[in-house]
TrEMBL record:
The keyword Coiled coil applies. Keywords: Coiled coil. Residues 188-215 form a coiled coil. InterPro entries: DNA_glycosylase, Transp_IS110-like_N, Transpos_IS110, Transposase_20. This is IS110 family transposase. Residues 9-147 form the Transposase IS110-like N-terminal domain. Residues 213-289 form the Transposase IS116/IS110/IS902 C-terminal domain. It comes from the Bacteria.
Length: 338
């Protein structure tokens, strides 16, 4: 333990952690590896200082541990640390780069998430993981049966077609195919049961939680998207404007501007992928409804759909939805149709 340490920059891992201690003048006091137990002991015994880490796996856990012992935690996005790595890529260089990045006065940091917030994120990602597994099983079953002339459309809604074909004794299918098909259907049914249970819990939470209920008033946003915003987004009051929140999601154009000439490209995709994907899916559902109805009361949306490709319009609408989320959350208001 050293009393004149101003910052501990930690390169995280599973069992071996590299710790770079920095003094008040920015000089490196030591840079050495510690075990998991010794790191916990160091954070407990070290007088309050700055603890800097990359915002990566397990960083929020160690951030909460450091905060409990009175330290100031700075989580630096990994993309902002990389430019400070000198020459070779190793643990010592990474720890020094984290310290250098965390000392920059204009650096942006990630807020440490609470255990409850991460718990909501686990529930959301479990739901998404099970949906992907069910889709994988349905596609595998469709592919197997297609080899025997049984073809069904994509999606869970068409699963009954395959189930009836497997049960129909008149269908020319070998016995092993029927047995394997029954295994697929059983696994799909189990996953569907859990998926519906998780979806019901998200919907129930959206009715009791004021923030989730407020977000669900926005067209194109349902309980799943609202739950993703609550689980993955930081406190929206930390953003100066709705545009900044949309930029954090990666829904603004990538810039390659110089010499006063503005050059805008496709969306940056630098932000939170789960929320961005769900907003675009919700926006696409609204656009399909507008196309099917032949117009929309919203003149901006109707003109956008008329002159732009659907995906471009969906990204633009998702950007607007992100700004609505910021406005409604910060002002504690429900959505009102203009």
């Amino acid at each position: 333990m050293t009393t004149n340490i101003n910052m501990l920059a930690i390169d995280l891992a599973k069992g071996s952690f590299q710790v770079c201690a920095v003094g008040p003048e920015g000089t490196v006091l030591y840079n050495r590896g510690l075990s998991r137990t010794r790191l916990a002991t160091l954070l407990a015994e070290q007088p309050a200082c700055i603890v800097a880490m990359e915002a990566c796996a397990t960083s929020h856990h160690w951030g909460r541990v450091a905060q409990r012992h009175g330290h100031e935690v700075r989580l630096v996005p990994a993309a902002y640390v990389k430019p400070f790595v000198k020459r070779q890529k190793n643990d010592r260089a990474d720890a020094e780069a984290i310290a250098e990045a965390a000392l920059r006065p204009t650096m942006r940091f990630v807020a440490v998430k609470s255990a409850e917030t991460q718990g909501r994120a686990v529930a959301f990602r479990t739901h998404q993981c099970l949906v992907r597994q069910r889709t994988q099983l349905i596609n595998a079953l469709r592919g197997h049966l297609a080899e025997f002339g049984l073809v069904a459309p994509k999606g869970p809604a068409s699963l009954k077609v395959l189930e009836n074909a497997l049960e129909d004794q008149a269908t020319d299918l070998p016995r092993p195919v029927r047995e394997m098909g029954a295994i697929y259907l059983d696994q799909i049914a189990r996953l569907t049961e859990v998926i519906e249970q998780l979806a019901d819990e998200l919907e129930a939470a959206s009715k009791t939680d004021a923030q989730l209920r407020r977000l669900c008033t926005i067209p194109g946003i349902g309980p799943v998207t609202a739950g993703a915003v609550a689980a993955f987004a930081p406190d929206l009051d930390t953003f100066d404007s709705g545009r900044n929140f949309a930029a954090w999601l990666g829904l603004v154009p990538r810039q390659r501007s110089t010499g006063g000439k503005s050059r805008l490209g496709s969306v940056s995709k630098m932000g939170q992928t789960d929320i961005r994907r769900l907003l675009i899916v919700g926006a696409m559902s609204i656009i399909r409804w507008v196309v099917r109805k032949g117009g929309s009361p919203n003149r901006w949306l109707a003109a956008l759909v008329a002159r732009k490709p659907r995906m471009v319009a969906a990204v633009a609408l998702a950007n607007k939805m992100a700004r609505m989320i910021w406005t409604l959350t910060t002002k504690k208001e429900d959505y009102r149709m203009a």
